[in-house]
Description:
By secondary structure, this protein is mainly α. Helix content is 71%, strand content 2%.
Amino acid sequence: MFSITILILIITCVISFTAFSNQKVLDDLIFYPPAITQRNQWYRFVTNGFIHADITHLAFNMLSFYLFGEAVEKEFNYHFAEKGKMMFLLMYATGIIVCLIPTYLKNRNNYHYRSLGASGAVSAVVFAGIFLFPSIKIGLFILPPIIPGFVFGPLYLVLSVYMAKRGGDNINHSAHFWGAIWGIVFVMLSFGLLTDFNPVTNFIEGVKTYYFR
């Protein structure tokens, strides 16, 4: 049986490849704030996460998602038991939506704005992984996986804020930032309310172990 990670990856690739050669599919699914504001097409909050600008965009997102998704999903399955897959899917699905709320509020009547891609949801999964496994090694651009997650995380967030303010590169850095924050918040709330596992304590102990092992 496929993991939720693999299932999401397959569905995203199929829909993305379909949209590459079908402009109507792309237009119908893309995040377009005025269509939401004026035509109540709220589904665009979700469907935009299953289409991508090009193969490179798709490959980068799905590779990042796969590398972290499998480990995070297994951790969810361990702590939530039979509800693990559902909780993991819930985090991903809500990540697609939550990461775009600030973008929507800013561009609700902006006829020139469009956004697409799973980056926000992927950021949620990546940062859930960093929060659960703080000492995990991560690469940064051209660097190999040598940076611990608890160092990479703040760097990524600061860079996302900076790039969002600078703008001009047609990348929704705001979605990356809020997706990442949502991944941490979701883990804190869900694990804190539904399990005996304390992710905050685990994170702190993971950082301590890294420095004092």
